[in-house]
Amino acid sequence: MKITNNLCLITQDGQTKTVNVSSEGLRLVVPDGKELNLSALVFDGTFSVRVVLAGAEAKCRLSCVYLSGRKSENKIRFDVQHQAGNTYSEQIVRGILTDRAKASFEGTIRIPKDSQKCDASQNHRAVVLSDAASVTAIPELEIYADDVKCAHGSAIGSLDKTQLFYLMSRGVPADVAKKMLLRAFVRDVLDDSFEKYVDEWMGEHA
Amino acid sequence: MTKETLLEIKDLHACVGEKEILKGLSLTIPMGEVHAIMGPNGSGKSTLSNVIAGHPAYEVTGGQILFKGQDLLAMTPDERANSGVFLAFQYPTELPGVGTALFLKTALNAKRRFQGFPDLDAVGFMKRLKPRAQALGITDDMLKRPVNVGFSGGEKKKLETFQMAFLEPDFCILDEMDSGLDIDALRTVSEAVNVMREAHRSFLLITHYQRLLDYIVPDYIHIMVNGRIVDSGDKTLALKLEEKGYEDYK
Ligand SMILES: Nc1ncnc2c1ncn2[C@@H]1O[C@H](COP(=O)(O)OP(=O)(O)OP(=O)(O)O)[C@@H](O)[C@H]1O
Ligand SMILES: [Mg+2]
Fold first, then answer.
1. Do A171 and B93 touch (CB under 8 A)?
2. Predicted-complex ipTM score
3. How far apart are CA B55 and CA B40, in angstroms?
4. What is the pLDDT of residue A1?
5. N or C end of chain B, less CB within 10 A?
6. What is the pTM of this model?
7. Between chains, do A180 and B87 touch, taking CB under 8 Å as contact?
8. Distance (Å, rounded) from C-alpha A6 to C-alpha A3?
9. Nearest residue of B to residue A174, measured between CA atoms
């Protein structure tokens, strides 16, 4: 399959499918005791997911990698509503930007007053490979319950120069080393089924 | 008969930011020899190693390095490595997400391509890897993990030495290889170095301790203070240092 813009690949509980990103976005409800695992690879456009954790012990893990090249504009929106107490959520987002790409990540965590003992986390990291590319992270934490755990963080930077040097000091040319590190950067978020699409994108953009 | 020169450093000056660290360092290493550098903390030993390997944080502001007669400073770090330079780092870098086996394969094939050879296949790779891994106590589990991630201090040092044995460079710099190694590991690692001593290969050992030099006996010892080599001699120089410290050189 050839990657086109506007396309995003997602796996949901082991099933891989493609969806068009310009559509409305996804809204998913996780009932008590159930778990949602969603991974997405996004190349351009807006990707928006709203999850409602509707009953105790409901869990969700949302993973997303966005690869923004040329003049693409990526908007990643995750919105997790902890409707019930004892619910757990994880948002993990990794981005790579080249050229004149722009991206933003808006991650929302909502924990109403009565949803005690929830555990929510959000982590965003982006590697920016060009001076003309830019990325912003906008975390929104609406947390009204007091007995909850909530962690969030965002880091935006360039490739680690020490790591690049270490690879080169072993004979690996700069362009190969760069790709190895970029692949490693997204690997902890996406499983192997995405690898060929990541490689294809990197062949063209990185 | 005089030996052929492998590495020649002439009046080398290097800075980090505004600060000059190497201040006119000269050193010649002939083929087949083991040289040791000893010197106080902060005298610039690791800086010298990094400058030879091509670390981008250090700016060379004067002088020259010739490696096999070629201008080393004009080469990129990967070209230097593929021409035969290897640095076993004092503080090896962790590469999360980069598997050790893939890393080794990529490095080896990069060198082969550079030399005009085809990539090594899986069988050839394992053949080269297995005996060297075994000799240095590198387990299958370590090879499956990301490079240096979660390795103990000693394990990292062993993996550095293993990479050296695996890549078979012509010039090996070992920056405080002995720090963090237990007594058995020190013996194992020294043995791995000693079996690599050959007429076409030279070593630069950086160490603070005489003990390492009992295991790997150097041809020459140099004393480095404040960015320069201030004294050179045979292995007895280390014994003198052990007794008196660097007082006389300051
Ligand atoms: N990347 C760097 N950034 C800033 N300062 C540096 C950097 N590298 C080295 N220096 C400084 O240069 C000086 C020499 O450092 P270097 O690491 O070369 O010493 P060394 O002789 O290897 O010491 P040690 O025996 O403690 O390993 C020190 O003052 C150190 O702080
Ligand atoms: Mg040092």
1. no
2. 0.96
3. 22
4. 38
5. N
6. 0.90
7. no
8. 9
9. B78
